[in-house]
């Protein structure tokens, strides 16, 4: 028993005094397969920030409507879900860069901008939905700009067909459906509040919570 205690004691000393490192020699891996254009990579990194910025804004919206003094659980749930979707978009873009052999360096500098939400309170649900629609429109515009850059606009010798197809078929499809959905919600809520006032927003919130909108 004493020998076991002594052994454990010296092992503890060893872990406490030595530095655990994950160092290895530089690997000799062919780099011919890493072929993304530098300008395109920079634009993708910028889009990751845009997606995270949108996620933070949606989180602020979800938190605002979840307050006991506002108490709109339907709005809150919808905006928190939107925040998760924007965060997922950022993760997808990071995963894409990793798949293409990028992000092997300067990972810590991926996020440079201040992601603090521009707005943290709203007069009513209509204003919040309109802000959400403007936010989605801005993100869509940025994605379209990213596609133009990676298509080789202004540099005919380069066109990242795979990335452009991925962004067009996966990201833009979702953006356009989302924009149409928000525009419809704005229309419906404005009609309900015009006819029923504050009760109209309360009823709209209940429909959101029950998945009827």
UniProtKB/TrEMBL annotation:
Residues 34-193 form the Ferritin-like diiron domain. Residues 1-18 form the signal peptide. It holds the Pfam family Ferritin. One of its GO terms (biological process) is intracellular iron ion homeostasis. It catalyses: 4 Fe(2+) + O2 + 4 H(+) = 4 Fe(3+) + 2 H2O. Its main location: Golgi. Its EC number is 1.16.3.1. CDD domains: Euk_Ferritin. PANTHER family: FERRITIN (PTHR11431:SF43). This is Ferritin. GO terms for cellular component: extracellular region; Golgi apparatus. Belongs to the ferritin family. Oligomer of 12 light (L) chains and 12 heavy (H) chains; L and H chains are disulfide-linked. The functional molecule forms a roughly spherical shell with a diameter of 12 nm and contains a central cavity into which the insoluble ferric iron core is deposited. It is found in: Golgi apparatus; Secreted. Keywords: Disulfide bond, Golgi apparatus, Iron, Iron storage, Metal-binding, Oxidoreductase, Secreted, Signal. Stores iron in a soluble, non-toxic, readily available form. Important for iron homeostasis. Iron is taken up in the ferrous form and deposited as ferric hydroxides after oxidation. One of its GO terms (molecular function) is ferroxidase activity. Fe cation binds at residues 51, 86, 89, 136, 175.
């Amino acid at each position: 028993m004493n020998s076991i205690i002594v052994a454990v004691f010296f092992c503890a000393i060893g872990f406490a005094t030595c530095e655990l490192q994950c160092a290895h020699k530089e690997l000799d891996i062919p780099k011919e397969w890493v072929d993304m254009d530098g300008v395109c990579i920079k634009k993708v990194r910028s889009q990751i920030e845009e997606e995270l910025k949108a996620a933070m804004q949606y989180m602020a919206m979800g938190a605002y409507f979840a307050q006991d003094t506002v108490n709109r659980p339907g709005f809150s749930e919808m905006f928190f879900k939107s925040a998760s979707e924007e965060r997922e978009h950022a993760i997808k873009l990071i995963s894409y860069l990793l798949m293409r052999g990028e992000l092997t360096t300067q990972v810590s500098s991926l996020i440079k901008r201040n992601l603090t939400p521009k707005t943290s309170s709203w007069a009513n649900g209509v204003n919040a939905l309109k802000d959400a629609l403007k936010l989605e429109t801005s993100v869509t515009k940025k994605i379209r700009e990213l596609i133009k850059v990676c298509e080789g606009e202004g540099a005919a010798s380069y066109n990242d067909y795979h990335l452009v197809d991925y962004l067009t078929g996966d990201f833009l499809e979702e953006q356009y459906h989302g924009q149409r959905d928000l525009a419809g919600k704005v229309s419906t809520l404005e009609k309900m509040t015009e006819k029923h006032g504050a009760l109209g927003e309360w009823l709209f919130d209940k429909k959101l919570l029950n998945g009827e909108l």
